[in-house]
Amino acid sequence: MRLQLGSERNGRVAISRSQVGEISVEEIPMGSHPLLKCCRRRRPSFLRVAWLTSATLLWLCAPAGISNASAQVSAAAFVQVSGATPQTNQSRVSVTYANAQGEGDTNILAIGWKDATSNITSVSDLAGNTYQLAVPTARGSLLSQAIYYAKDIHAAAAGANTVTVTFNVAAPFIHFRATEYSGLDTANPLDVVVSAKGTSATPNSGSVTTTVAQELVFGAGRTYGTFTAAGTNFTSRAIATGGGDIAEDMFVTATGSYSATAALSGSAAWVMQVAAFRNAGQSTPPPPTGFDVVTQHYDVQRTGWNSHETVLTPSNVNSATFGLLHSVAVDDQVDAQPLVLTNQPISGVQGNRTVVYVATESNTVYAIDASSGTVLLQNNLGTPVSETQLAKLCNNNAVNLGIGSTPVIDRAAGLLYVVTYTSDGGVPTYRLHALSLTTLADAIPPVVVTASQKLTDGSTYTFQASKDRQRAGLLEANGNIYVAFASFCDLFTNVSRGWVLGWSASTLTPLAANQLNDKLAPSPTNNYFLSSVWMSGNGLVASSTGGIFFTTGNSGKGTYNSVNNLSESVVNLSSDLTRVTDFFTPSNVNTLDANDSDLSSGGVLLIPAQSGPVANLAVALGKDGRMFLMNQQNLGQFTPGGPDKVLGTFNLAQQCWCAESYYTASDGVGRVVTSAAHNIIIWTLQTSPSVTLVKERTKTAIASGQDAGFFTSISTNGTQALTAVIWAVSRPTNTNPANVLLYAFSHANSSPIFSANAGTWPNVTGNANIVPVVANGQVFVASNQQLAIFGPITPGAKVATLLPVKIPRIPASGRKVSGWVDGINGTELMIRKRNGDHVTIDAKPAQDAFQSVPIGMGEAITAVGNNDAQGVLHAQTIVRAKDSRDLWPPDQ
Known about the structure:
Layout: E1 2-3, E2 7-9, E3 12-14, E4 18-20, E5 23-25, E6 28-29, H1 34-42, E7 49-52, E8 57-60, E9 77-84, E10 90-96, E11 106-113, E12 120-125, E13 132-139, E14 144-150, E15 162-171, E16 175-182, E17 190-200, E18 204-209, E19 215-223, E20 227-230, E21 235-239, E22 245-252, E23 257-264, E24 268-278, E25 305-306, E26 322-333, E27 339-344, E28 353-359, E29 364-369, E30 375-380, E31 385-386, E32 400-401, E33 408-410, E34 415-424, E35 427-436, E36 442-448, E37 452-454, E38 460-462, E39 468-469, E40 475-477, E41 480-487, E42 499-504, E43 515-516, E44 541-542, E45 548-551, E46 570-573, E47 580-585, H2 589-594, E48 604-607, E49 617-621, E50 626-631, E51 637-638, E52 648-651, E53 661-664, E54 670-676, E55 679-686, E56 692-698, E57 711-715, E58 725-729, E59 739-746, E60 754-760, E61 773-775, E62 778-782, E63 784-792, E64 815-825, E65 828-832, E66 838-842, H3 844-848, E67 860-867, E68 873-880
Parallel strand pairs: 25-57, 47-51, 66-68
Antiparallel strand pairs: 1-21, 2-3, 3-6, 4-5, 5-7, 7-8, 9-16, 10-15, 11-14, 11-16, 12-15, 13-14, 17-24, 18-23, 19-22, 19-24, 20-23, 21-22, 26-63, 27-28, 28-29, 29-30, 31-32, 33-34, 34-35, 35-36, 37-38, 39-41, 40-41, 41-42, 42-43, 44-45, 45-46, 46-47, 48-49, 49-50, 50-52, 53-54, 54-55, 55-56, ...
């Protein structure tokens, strides 16, 4: 490779020693030559020196980058480059940095190869640095290339650090260029990137617009032709023998539009990429200019409270001055709550924006401009799993199963963490991704979710991706990403079990320990497990002391065990997932298990610290309509026969698939907001002399269907009077048009101050667990195939309209019948259909295959199977149906 190298370290020009043609380069003391002294005075941070083999000085003192004439010189500098160009197919290629590496520097790797199908699976080095994807793999005509980087690297002696790139298969003609730069930002150096492919003599990456003044613009190319020179204003750092690749750079001192170009000896296929990296000492990432929503229900306590809303108040949220601004099309149902960042740069987009991040069940992540509704970026992370691939037509999920939970954003790291569900050659697979906020590309190689735990008989139980559902929102806390798993429709209860897993946020390395909620071994008397963590999509919760809180669902009747099977419980885990530090289980746990009355249908709310005898409080609410008020430091554990050792139990008299919210009103007193059936209930938090909740008022019912309850959020301007707005999104009441509505209530009034259609939810057998996201004078509602953006409107102005969308349903194989259970005789059921007719169901085939939910008298179910000559339906699958027959699927 032809190399142009160098930077000053400790009074020497540190350059890689190499021999190319008739030129060799090596390390030269700065004071050993008068011309070098001159150059040092002129540019102390960077020198480039080359010697002929006869030791004659050939050329020196040429500053790198774009600005030979610039008076201001970037603090960043090129340090060294090494490379490898194996001529045979390889699945692993390594490059060793020849010179010592400096603490805090940045390694930038350009990796190209000659096919369009192989993939890089990992990048690592001996120094323990973490490599992130800077520019996603670009594919050309039988060409591929990607750029990786490691920020804030560890120091390493000369020849001591080797970087290894691993592929999924042996890839042909890999060209690996490993560079090092000093002076780049150690926290979040990557700014903007772009790639292009083509066939010509003038490769061009396309342009990026930098967001800060002083940056390194790094370009790299791979070709079937021959690179002869770097592009205009670029310095060539490496051109392989034969010219098959190039690495080049320039240092810029002003924001602007830059593209990586190079010259080829003639027209040929090429891939060209550019990545801009910020210098140290600049604002990275840009600070928010408003209220950011980075996690499910707004914060890790899951309060659902935006206390920084300065625009929307009860006085201006009405049909005359507030309405739909934009409806943005996306490719599938959205079960994940949208996330919002202000002042956010997006690769290839001029200027910073308020960006809404939306993730769909087709595994697509969108970055959407909140002001215009324009899709700025989107990235599909893999083929979703079809509902026919698992659980035999579980009916509470979408047709596609992809991203089903709310991601989490780490703004300081510039990352969005998300779990995808993909069909890998027909095999359902979960992956945890860390995406760049500016490019939506993987910044760290994604990891496949795996786990194992010892059961009570000493056997090993392993994670079952085809039987476990990832629904609860992700949590970032304690430097980790935590993810919970549940089941599909309570099917395959002999296999599916609830998990809480964790990974390092910086590396995606799995934590050494994990939590399996039911560790009981299979036995002749017990083959029913679960103890799932689903929480209707609510997120795992973090306390100020590092604890991880969540609720669990049902297990087999009579199998509860406070050590080995924490069903129907509120759980507090240690941050490293090694132990349960505390828990609360209702004394009627066996009844809850038997009736499938999951405590996990609602999440956990950790109330912000209060004055009074108990400072740290928690609230949990489940299917049986009881709300428990607990002490975070002493949840209450389990009291057989009762009474439960909690601070209070409050009967809402209605089931709840929902989330609690919290805010402090203008009187300085905290409020807990719940939903029950179709109503919002406000509770006053009493902290002295005793701690309790006092029902303050019940709002007028909203038009909501499916299962009881819904999600709320709160916006206020601090605790200013007359600024509190309670927001809610309903669930559909019919199959067509299956509308969901956005509602707004003031604190004082019982009736809504605003309501309007906000989207549709044709998948009526699966709850619309939609969180209204309120931020910076706008409200975001994600539903089926669209994001609705509401905000202030000019009176009399035309309001935007929602998009007409539908979701296809995959027809069941065989017959499908829904109805209420009027009789149970062993495994024979008598159900009453919507028209009053009765049909006999043989439940034994479904129950024997663990493809039936628990069945009780009066419950609504849907059975899928085949009829015999006597008209008996032999069920293959039995799942729950909604209470309202208007939401049942058509019989067939």
